[in-house]
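User: Okay, second chain of the day. Same drill as before: sequence in, structure tokens out.
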Amino acid sequence: MLAAVLHEIGQDKLEVLDDVEATGFGPGRVRIRVRATGLCHSDLSAMAGVLPQPAPFVPGHEGAGEILEVGEGVSHLKPGDRVVVCWLPACGVCPACKRGQTQLCLAGFMNAGTPNFKRPGGDVFGFAGTGTFAEEVVVDAGCAVPIPDDVPFDIAALIGCGVTTGLGAALNTADVEAGSSVAVIGCGGVGISAIQGARLKGAAEIVAVDPVASRREAALKFGATRAISPDELPDAKQQVTGGEGFDYVFEVVGRSATARTAYENTRRGGTLVVVGAGALDDYLQLSMFELFFDEKRILPSMYGGGDVLRSYERTIALWRAGRVDLESLITHRVPLADINEALDQMRQGTALRTCIEI
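Assistant: Same drill. Structure tokens below.
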């Protein structure tokens, strides 16, 4: 089957090969025919070594498709079922799951260390235990979440990561208050979803911050009240908040420098929400005095900060009702054979989300 493979960490191109086989099928597992997958910035981060991932590997974790085969003991799925791939499934029995913090379950991360594929030359891993830049993938049954028939595969793929992460950051983690002021730093697919979440919650001012003009223009269409470049943020802070700072600032880049900027633009007593996935060795520096004196809440948001399955259902309901726009998030489409074109679009900032059609 076809799959896009990164041979070594640090390479900036993927090789699309036809000699890859999805492996690991057995009890408790399912085989999925991938139909659509989104390119998320986390895929680029894993390729660059910012996020830890064994190589060689097949990137991709934001996918949807249909069940081809179910293993022994799998009773809630059958061949032909339409599913979204969940890269962070909840085991239901660990302490985090029992506390209701299923987004902190580590079961999914354990899958990342087991090869999902093989080639004549040896084993190949799947990013985040999945690897959706392939025609087929074998995953634990908990990673395959059924979706209604009226949800297209491309929309379902977005729900599998970016939309759930961004919407959840605003709806679950921050629980944005109606009438508040919001700034979102980083307006790709996840940042735009956070903007939509803040709009749903009734934020009065939503300032989108991004260096790419096309993304700023898009942010206005999705609910931002103004869109600015990073060097315009001090003026916006003064104009919107009288210099006090925003009630909520979302950092959706994953770098300490932008997290520091986000902190400085959050008002005293306000909330900084860290959404971007950053590197292990990139440290955010804060003084003990400012932590105490400013009383700003710093809230990391992992995969939207809530029950993933409930978040999927909520997003589908909001999409059906026309309350969130998911179709317009897909600005580019490419076949798997042209995956490197999608990588270039992401790096250049020209795409909100590129759908890879498989």
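DSSP finds twelve helices and 19 strands in the chain.

User: Thanks, on to the next one.
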